[in-house]
Amino acid sequence: MHEVVIDTPIGRVRLAANADALVRLDLPNRVDAPLAPHTDHPVLKETIAQLEAYFAGELQTFDVPIAFEGTEFQRLAWHALVDIPYATTRSYAEQARAIGRPTAARAVGAANGKNPIAIIVPCHRVIGGNGSLTGYGGGVETKRWLLDHEARHAGLRLPL
Question: Mean pLDDT over all residues of the chain?
Answer without folding.
Answer: 90
